[in-house]
Amino acid sequence: MLKLFQFLRDWSEVWALLIPLIIILIYKPLGRKVRPLVFYVIIAFLLNFLAVFVIEYYYLAPLWLNEKGNNLYYNLHSFIMVVFFSWYILTIRPNKYVLLLKAFLAIYILFVLINFAFFEPTYLLSSRHFTAGSIVLLLMCLSYFFHSMQDDSQINWIKHPSFIICTGVCLYQAVTFFVFLFIYPLYDDAYNKNLSFAMLMMRVYQVVFVLFCILIAIGLYHYRYKQKKDADLNNIIDKKPGYV
Q: In Å, what is the CA distance from 76 to each residue of 5, 29, 45, 167?
């Protein structure tokens, strides 16, 4: 039982993504707005699998996969998370600050390119990269929540699938912002004499990531009902006599 718990904990960043991936495979949520979520889940699953596999089974992995560790895969995961969830938030509803939010995203992408081209190697876990990504996604989510509360349309945004997904993103980024901001001091003996606290923070990160994946899966599942409801409404409109 202890070995099983250890296995589940070590591979939590992989099997957690299987939850939304199974929802995608079974219910097949479609549409332009759902596409960024589907892309994220599939690519993140592959990157996290490589990241964990390289550490757990480094003796089986080809040299080109584990030559410099697994931090490259975590850096890539952080990047695609920011890009795809920003894309998703920008497409789910109109926003009068959309140009400003797109500018933040463009600045973030430019920052990542400059940072890894001139200042930090890609094989090191970049706390400044993770911090910048958290700031962008938190701004995106807060903008979504703020404009949802001000929206006068008939859409109930609290019951909309996007509300669940943005809640998951906001929760994940709010917690991991501090974890990755101080990741190196936490594991540095010169700063932190109690490494058990660093290990505890990583356990917190793993739990939050699992919760994040569960909320994505719930949101994707609710998109199934929303698509069915929209299809039924379109059928009613098409059948209504004299409707233009």
A: 28, 25, 12, 23
Rounded to whole angstroms, the Cα distance separating 157 from 233 reads: 19
pTM for the complete prediction? Answer: 0.87
Phi then psi dihedrals of residue 108, to 5 deg? -60, -45
Instruction: Check: CB of residue 12 under 8 Å from CB of residue 206.
Output: yes
Among residues 48, 41, 159, 143, which one has the least CA distance to residue 90?
Answer: 143
Find, among 23, 42, 26, the residue nearest to 161 by Cα.
23
DSSP conformational letter for 159: G
Torsion region of 28: left, alpha or beta (phi above 0 gives left; psi -120 to 50 gives alpha): left
pLDDT tens track for 191-238: 555 667 777 888 889 999 999 999 999 999 988 766 555 544 444 434
